[in-house]
Amino acid sequence: MEDVILIKAQSKTGGLFTMLVGGLIVVLGSIILLWLPDILRLGGIFILSGGIVAMLIGWFKLREPEHSMHLSKTAINYHHRHGGWLLNWNNIARIDTPKVYRNMQHEPLAMVGIRIKDYDEFLGSISPRLMNNILVEQRALLVQTFKEQYKAGDASLDQYSDYLIEDTAFTSEKGRKYTGLQAMFANRMQRLREGLGYDIYISVTELDRSADAFVGLLKQCHSSSNS
């Protein structure tokens, strides 16, 4: 294993180009609004709006860290504009692609799942802003988890609203008590583990390769760290 393997997110690429294209579209829309007949003004407004959206997308791309992850000999170091987390290789129990049951077969999700051993160690490494961001982004994943449990008969529709609200108290296996945001995040990890088998989820948009290829890389790094 190399000393450090750098992973660059797909979502990071093309930020400057997207902003430049958006800027050109804004200029075009402005010209249409200023110089062309009123009958074409609505089209100019749509073009101008599209350019502004493109510029915003490019700006958000540029705000992301240059690399989404650093894989060292001891840990995975994850980077995001809202913060980051650190996960030691010896705290990983399982790495794979999560699957859900659809159309009479198991289909992989476009993400990588990691099951950890010690919640306390991981919760101490993740920034509060990132925890809050992940809780929001994972709503769709949580809904999918509920659907899986509902299909299996382990949940009913009257539990749906409660299922989406995380408890603000959590006690780890070692007996450490958490409250507030940390407790909500720990409860979310536990809920997703019960539904999909993993605690941490990394979207393929944050990778520079396919989910299966990244799973293979992580397993190789994990094995090397234990040898």
Report low-confidence residues grouped into runs of 5 or more. Answer: none
Order of helices and strands: EHHEEEEEEEHHHHEEHEH
Radius of gyration computed on alpha carbons: 22 Å
The percent range for helix content is: 40-55%
Q: List how many beta strands DSSP finds.
A: 11
Main sheet record: 4 strands, antiparallel
What is the overall silhouette? globular
Please explain how this structure is put together.
The chain has 227 residues and is an alpha+beta fold. The strands form 4 sheets. The chain has a 4-stranded antiparallel sheet. Helix 1 runs antiparallel to helix 2 and helix 4 crosses helix 7. The chain is globular and about 70 Å long. The mean pLDDT is 82.
Question: Mind sketching the topology for me?
Answer:
Elements: E1 4-7, H1 15-35, H2 41-63, E2 69-72, E3 75-80, E4 83-88, E5 92-96, E6 99-102, E7 105-108, E8 111-116, H3 119-123, H4 128-137, H5 139-151, H6 160-163, E9 169-171, E10 177-179, H7 180-196, E11 200-203, H8 211-226
Antiparallel strand pairs: 1-2, 2-3, 3-4, 5-8, 6-7, 8-11, 9-10
Helix pairs in contact: 1-2, 4-7, 5-7
In short:
This protein is an alpha+beta fold. It is built from eight helices and eleven strands. Strands 1-2-3-4 form a four-stranded antiparallel sheet. A three-stranded antiparallel sheet has the order 5-8-11, covered by helices on one side.
